[in-house]
Amino acid sequence: MRHRSTVWPCLRTTLAILLLLVATSAFPAERSADAGRRVVEAPTIIHSEGMTYSEYRANQAAMISRLVGAVPASAMHPSVRIDLTREEVAGVERAPRVSGTPLQIGLVKAVNPRLDVDGLQVGTGAGGPRRGPAATATPTADGGFAWAVPVVSAGAGAVRVHIESMSLPAGAELYFYSRMGEAFGPYRNAGPNGNGDFWTDTVFGTEGILQVHVAGPGRSADLGRIALSVTEVGVIMPRFAGGFTPEVGVCGNADCIVDTQCDNSSQGNTLENAVAKMEWSQGAFIYTCTGGLLTDTNPSQNNFFLTANHCLSKNNTAQNVQFYWKFKTTGCNGTCPNNTGWPYKTMGATVSATGKRGDFTLLHLNADPPAGSVTLGWTSAPIANTNGAALHRVSNPDFGPQVYSQHAVDTAVGTCGGWPRGNWIYSRDTVGAIDGGSSGSPIVNASVQVVGQLSGTCGGNASAVCESGPGEANATVDGAFAAYFATVQPILAP
Questions:
Q1: 460 contacts: CB under 8 Å, gap ≥ 6
Q2: Residue 450 — φ and ψ, nearest 5°?
Q3: pLDDT for 421-446, tens place per residue?
Q4: Mean of the per-residue pLDDT values for the chain?
Q5: Which of 15, 50, 320, 375 is the most buried (most CB within 10 A)?
Q6: What is the DSSP letter of 95?
Q7: Angstrom distance (rounded) from CA 457 to CA 467
Q8: Topology of 75-241 in CATH?
């Protein structure tokens, strides 16, 4: 059994990143491999677009300032309530963890009866005129109108809402926010997917509020054209959300897991700014995996993000992925999530390429990651048969904060069916470990170049988190970037 690392953090700066950039200055570059094949490489780059965390929180605060109080509690539509049984909660929190599958962290439940809004009319509150249970809008101070409904699930760790058939006229906007301090939107027209069907962002806590605003001066004709349906609610279990309030949480990782804040390697410091944990709704469940930003030279797109095919592979799933950036503890083995309060989140992506060979999915993000994020360099040089090669990873197991692990390629360990060596990289954990939710996390070489992403664990006791070290029962397995590079090269480096 390996023990927790005792490396303590020191002052972190961008120096480590800059040093790595000097070492990998060509973009992209080709060199000759020993076997004669041409190796294509790209460097790690600091991402300048996007908002800073302060700008992100200021934007949310401004939204909440506009939203709170626009619809008095007495004028809100009666709450949409989603109840979970103890058996349902236990079924998710205690579900067996199967290698090569995404981790379940929540449930999707139908709203019964569903809430359909087909036009609004002006009212004065709960007693105002209605054409249906959700049909009364409240006048606002700017001469417009607003309508709101709380979505509540007692004991939830976080909630999100499935909207269908949304059609909003110009000047009308939908928001989803919590009284605790998070706000998302506006969702306009037919929603972010253009077809009226989408999932909102996720808010932590037991309640989120859906609120429609029509900018003043509002017209009754605009109210009559507002349509949307609330059909499902996604509920993340409290065991994974940690009973979330800012700077408070439950990490609950195994003893062999190493907090990134306890590591001060240059590779780990760089990876922290490239990796995001993912959360999405699919069918009856909410799932989580990890992924990371990749450098590209595509003149028409940027913001590419690598994860595993077994996590997601279709656009209708990628559209509702919530990305949690730089989600880490307050300090070495500190509280969750990070010391700046609410996490920085973005929503949505499209699938640029995916494949079962090498178990990869390359996403194109719908929104910029935070300013100062890092896009990871990569290399097409194969490493699966380079015994002892040192590899590094940052991931978000258990829907928790970032953790660090180091691995050594092992060419002697036995393979698992469907994961042949070469298309996959087999390694032993030398520092830290991975767990459910780490799937899809990029693995990099000493130069912080991506060489693959996590598929899972192979061995006689694959559910044992702390038994993938040298001489132990299991091996850690990553899909090999070199094996599928020909598929992603036209996208990343056309």
A1: 473, 474
A2: -65, 130
A3: 999 999 999 999 999 999 999 999 99
A4: 87
A5: 320
A6: P
A7: 10
A8: Jelly Rolls (2.60.120)
| Pairing between β-strand 45-46 and β-strand 390-395 as defined by DSSP bridges | unpaired
Instruction: Report percent pLDDT > 70 for the chain.
Output: 87
Task: Give the tens place of pLDDT for each residue, 47-90.
Answer: 878 899 999 999 999 999 999 989 988 889 899 999 999 999 99
Residue 411 carries which DSSP code? S
Q: Spell out the residues 6+ positions from residue 359 whose beta carbon is closer than 8 angstroms to its own.
A: 100, 308, 309, 310, 419, 424, 453, 455, 479
Helix (H, G, I), strand (E, B) or coil at 362: strand
Per-residue DSSP letter, 466: T
Domain boundary assignment for the chain? 1-43+246-494, 75-241
Give the separation between CA 375 and CA 441, rounded to whole angstroms: 14
Q: Scanning the structure block, which residue is given the tokens 């302060």?
A: 54
d(CA 469, CA 2): 7
Query: What does the radius of gyration of the chain's CA atoms come to, in whole angstroms?
Result: 23
Per-residue b/e over 217-252, b at no fewer than 16 CB within 10 Å? ebeeebbebbbbbbbbbbbbbbbbbbebebbebbbe
Give me 12's structure tokens: 């972190």
Residue 311: CB atoms within 10 A of its CB come to 30
CATH class in words for 1-43+246-494: mainly beta
How much is the pLDDT for 73? 86
Q: How far is CA 191 from the centre of its chain?
A: 20
CA dist., res. 446 & res. 431, Å (int): 14
* Residue 127: C-alpha distances to residues 77, 123, 130, 133, 135 (Å): 11, 8, 9, 11, 12
> How confident is the model at residue 254, as a pLDDT?
84
DSSP string, 237-257: -HHHHTS-BTTB------TT-
pLDDT at residue 20, as a whole number: 45
d(CA 70, CA 212): 10
Q: Fill in the amino acid letter for 58.
A: A
> Could you tell me the pTM of the whole model?
0.91
CA distance 485 to 475: 24
CA–CA separation, 83 and 133 (whole Å): 21
Q: What is residue 406's predicted lDDT score, i.e. its pLDDT? A: 97
Residue 91 has pLDDT above 80, yes or no: yes
φ, ψ of residue 51 in degrees (nearest 5): -90, 155
Contacts of 294 (CB under 8 A, 6+ apart): 42, 304, 305, 306, 362, 375, 376, 378, 442, 450, 492
Q: Which two tokens stand for residue 205?
A: 């806590």
